[in-house]
Design brief:
The complex is a heterodimer of chains A (about 325) and B (about 270).
Chain A: H1 9-26, H2 33-52, H3 56-63, H4 71-79, E1 83-85, E2 98-105, E3 108-115, H5 121-126, H6 134-150, E4 154-160, H7 167-171, H8 174-185, E5 192-201, H9 202-206, E6 213-217, E7 221-223, H10 227-235, H11 241-247, H12 252-257, E8 263-265, H13 276-296, H14 299-311, E9 316-318, H15 319-324
Parallel strand pairs in A: 3-4, 4-5, 5-6, 5-7, 6-8
Antiparallel strand pairs in A: 1-2, 2-3
Chain B: H1 3-8, H2 15-18, E1 19-21, E2 28-30, H3 31-36, H4 52-59, E3 66-68, E4 72-74, H5 86-97, E5 103-110, E6 113-120, H6 131-147, E7 151-157, H7 165-184, E8 189-198, H8 199-202, E9 211-214, E10 220-221, H9 225-232, H10 243-248, E11 254-255, H11 261-272
Helix pairs in contact in B: 6-7
Classes of the chains: A alpha/beta (about 325), B alpha/beta (about 270).
Chain lengths: ~325, ~270
């Protein structure tokens, strides 16, 4: 069951009303089809209206929905049986907050790596709410090296509140693990496609996000810090979370405009959590569209373009330009 | 006293302009003595935060530092306003520090060897990394690769600059990719971490030195101690995330006293490359 959002209340109420009327209709005593049709039209209009006008903070909530398609859900829809999960960093352990493995999407063999959240509290505790430890990032890097060796393109699914802030994570070098991935991903000699499927939480997201193409789902977010963290630090007031979400410009359309991502994947009305298959289909479309040209490219050129892509990110000016302006 | 007297009366130096308390032993230290003593506490030898130009002087041969990109300035790509607009914060930081951004980069010689040096300035918005910091550092990393001259970066930063949002985050990828390229041409990158080096700076270029050095007692980590305490609801052990802790956990090559930092870096470079 989908969790109810405040902004969805009137939609859910009307949907309940439709069900009631349908139940009465089914008894056959009265014909309510006109009423049902009218309310259905109203609900559709309302859904379009609500989901077409979500505030950044509301989008953040949709991005974090407990039924949002996770990496393993997407793998199931994309690869079916043709997937083998591979575990462990060969250094310390296996981090359940990142999953990885080899699979086939259509005719294409791929390496898939992604953050993994749970769909209930128990699973979320096991997955540490999708917040990796260093061994998760090191597992991801090991998989990328395996992919490189066998010429498999890499598909990365990004969905994390961030890298875990804890004692063990610091002891085992969370900074080193993230930094190492950023540097090494820039040199992996196979194509890398990244999809922000839910929450792109800061360095913990970027650590598997240095790709040749980066896409975001319509109701996903990608940000330097969470809205809550930003409100606490810059406003010194956790109640300013909504303002912070707006100020951070963390939605897909903002990032496309800023030249950080390459495209936006549409979601069904009401969000991807209502239809995992459609989310997977959208991903497959992008893979089929972008992978052939990247696979055809000479590896040196691929790396050169990947370098240039991130090299060009940033906005600044020169004092002289300001004076002459 | 008339309004004229009020205006022209010399402003009394506030005590904090003259002295500082040692954060470790609480000793009262005169600023002019501190500057002469490399900002080391005369009582307990604690390494206090060192101002930008003192740091550059510490690590380079006399008058050899030539700044690059000093005219580069941040813009406000998000039109970011929290309790005040970002351009206002920026103007205040520029006024306070008399520099345009949170890092100074340039060419210099270190014991006669040509190097590129970047020094972060914690006084400028907590040394936070936005587009300009990322761009300036990437530029010296690329110059180092082109001219086969070692690159040294002294970090002092709370992490990525929130006011530039996703652009700040991407500087982590940009600088790290530039280090990968430097690695490929076997030009040394020496990372010197000073108090504090955390967040997106620690989780990108600062951790990627061929040699990672820290000053004694520096706070170094991914997450700040307050965030960790709030997350795990435990008090953190004494010395957690300090230089010695990182050395013991294999994250640093060495912890080096400020007095011998320049000589040690010179020796490392001499031994790594002819």
């Amino acid at each position: 069951m989908a969790k109810d959002f405040e902004f969805e209340k009137s939609i859910i109420e009307l949907e309940a009303r439709i069900k009631e009327l349908q139940a009465i209709s089914e008894t056959g005593k009265v014909d309510l089809s006109r009423e049902i049709r009218a309310i259905t039209e109203k609900v559709d209009a309302l859904k379009n209206d609500v989901y077409g006008n979500l505030e950044p903070w509301q989008i953040t909530q949709v991005a974090r929905h407990i039924n949002r398609p996770s990496t393993l859900d997407l793998i199931k829809h994309l690869c079916g049986e043709e997937f083998v999960e591979l575990h462990g960093d060969r250094l310390f352990g296996d981090d359940p907050a990142i999953v990885s493995g080899i699979g086939r999407i259509g005719d294409q063999r791929v390496m898939i790596i992604g953050h993994q959240k749970g769909h209930d509290t128990e699973e979320n505790i096991y997955r540490n709410f999708g917040m990796p430890h260093p061994e998760g990032y090191r597992k991801a890097l090991r998989m990328m090296r395996t992919a490189e060796r066998f010429g498999l393109p890499i598909i990365a699914f990004i969905d994390t509140p961030g890298a875990f802030p804890g004692i063990g994570a610091e002891e085992r070098g969370q900074s080193d693990a993230i930094a190492r991935n950023l540097a090494e991903m820039s040199g992996i000699r196979v194509p890398i496609l990244c999809f922000v499927t839910g929450e792109g939480g800061s360095g913990g997201a970027l650590a598997i996000g240095v790709g040749d193409r980066v896409f975001m789902f319509e109701f996903s977010v990608y940000s330097v810090i969470s809205a809550e963290g930003c409100a606490a630090i810059l406003w010194n007031d956790p109640a300013k979370t909504k303002e912070a979400a707006t100020a951070l410009k963390l939605r897909a359309s903002n990032l496309l405009e800023a030249g950080i991502i390459d495209g936006i994947l549409p979601e069904p009305i009401g969000g991807a959590h209502r239809n995992h298959q459609m989310a997977a289909d959208e991903i497959k479309k992008q893979i089929e569209k972008h992978l052939p040209s990247l696979l055809a490219m000479n590896a040196d050129k691929l790396l050169d373009e990947r370098y240039k892509k991130f090299r060009g990110m940033g906005r600044f000016t020169r004092e002289e330009e300001l004076e002459h302006a | 006293m008339g309004w004229f007297d009020k205006l022209t009366r010399p402003r009394r130096d506030t005590p904090s302009d003259l002295w500082k308390k040692c954060p470790a032993c609480n000793e009262t230290l005169l600023i002019k003595d501190l500057a002469k003593n490399l900002f080391l506490c005369s009582k307990c030898d604690h390494h206090l935060r060192m101002p930008l130009w003192d740091r550059i002087a510490l690590l380079t041969d006399d008058n050899s530092f030539v700044e690059i990109d000093h005219d580069m300035k941040s813009v406000d790509p998000l039109n970011f306003v929290d309790s005040k607009p970002y351009p206002e914060r920026m103007a205040e930081a520029i006024k306070k520090t008399d520099v345009n951004e949170a890092v100074a980069t340039g060419r210099a010689t270190l014991s006669g060897r040509k190097v590129f040096l970047g020094v972060m300035n914690f006084d400028f918005m907590g040394g936070s990394m936005g587009s300009v910091v990322g761009e300036k550092l990437t530029t010296i990393l690329e110059l180092g690769a082109q001219e086969k001259a070692p690159v040294i970066i002294v970090s002092a930063s709370g992490g990525a600059r929130m006011q530039e949002g996703i652009f700040s985050l991407m500087q982590m990828a940009k600088t790290s990719a530039a280090i990968k390229r430097l690695n490929q041409v076997a030009v040394p990158f020496i990372s010197i971490m000073t108090d504090p080096t955390t967040g997106g700076v620690s989780a990108s270029f600062a951790s990627l030195g061929d040699v990672n050095i820290a000053e004694p007692g520096a706070l170094i980590g991914f997450a700040g101690p307050r965030v960790i305490e709030q997350t795990i609801r435990q008090k953190l052990p004494e010395g957690f995330q300090r230089s010695k802790f990182l050395l013991e956990h294999g994250m640093l090559d060495c912890v080096i006293h400020r007095r011998v930092m320049k000589n040690t870096v010179a020796r490392i470079l001499r031994l790594l490359v002819a």
